[in-house]
Amino acid sequence: MHDDEFDEARQLMVAEIAAETIFSSGETGKAALDPRVLEALGRVPRHEFVPVELRPYAYVNSPLPIGCDKTISQPFICALMTDLLEPQAGDRVLEIGTGLGYQAAILAGLVRTVYSVEIIEPLAQQAKRRLARYENVVLGTGNGYHGWSEHAPFDKVIVTAAPDLIPPMLIQQLKPGGRMVIPAGLAETQKLMLLEKDAGGHAKTKEILRVRFSLLEGGDGA
Questions:
Q1: Does a structural domain hold residue 139?
Q2: For residue 163, what are the contacts with CB-CB under 8 A and spacing of at least 6?
Q3: What is the pTM of this model?
């Protein structure tokens, strides 16, 4: 495919995300996503964040394998999670699970700094190359289950793999007034969760919809 074909496919993907948002509004409570989020998805070349042999399928509204038994999330889920995060221009965001870097690239155009951690070395090395031009993305290789205390606290946290329970250290590293979007639960009963921490540091969670993510590696029981 040529660049103009990728551009057209990307705009069609954004239109499909908008349509699926309406279709799923009964579960999510959202009939529309923030236009800034949709614009970010319309800018970022998703085909640069999938294996080269899958580039023709990069803008299909479906998860795709990226190697190491991991996947890049369905574009609608990526858009929904970004929207739920309510990214602001001054935010410092922690991402757990870089993969090949697509979610970090989306956030890079919406926030001040993205700190992204990947536990799988081959994926981390590929993400470093693919994200080289995104100057406000800071990458780390290691166990993100316990967060990234060196750069904490964070305004927002987004997790792209599912633990059984929300890791306590991620909650601790979230600023008062912050938000975390994370899939959690056993494999057959995972839910996308929104965690909000109030000004006093108390956290509350809300279930958004059923999802199916790879398991978050690196926990005490992993």
A1: yes
A2: 145, 182, 184, 215, 216, 219
A3: 0.94
Q: Which two tokens stand for residue 92?
A: 């410092």
Q: Domain tally for the chain? A: 1
Q: Is residue 78 in a domain?
A: yes
Q: Alpha-carbon distance 25 to 11, whole Å?
A: 21
- Residue 221 falls within a domain, yes or no? no
Please, what sign has the CA dihedral across residues 43, 22, 33, 179?
A: negative
Positions marked active-site = 73
Question: pLDDT of 17-29, one tens digit each?
Answer: 999 999 999 999 9
The answer as to whether 92 is a domain residue is: yes
CATH of the domain at 189: 3.40.50.150
**pLDDT class of 220 with cuts at 50, 70, 90:** low
pLDDT at residue 219 greater than cutoff 70: no
- Residues 145-166 pLDDT 10s: 999 999 999 999 999 999 999 9
Candidates 97, 129, 91, 90; CA nearest to 116 is 97
- Quote the domain boundaries for residue 42: 3-210
Q: Tens digit of pLDDT for each residue in 126-143?
A: 999 999 999 999 999 999
Can you tell me the distance from the alpha carbon of 11 to that of 187, in angstroms, rounded to the nearest whole number? 32
- Cα dist from 107 to 25, 128, 171, 179, whole Å: 23, 15, 20, 14
Please check whether residue 208 is in contact with residue 27, taking contact to mean a CB–CB distance below 8 angstroms: yes
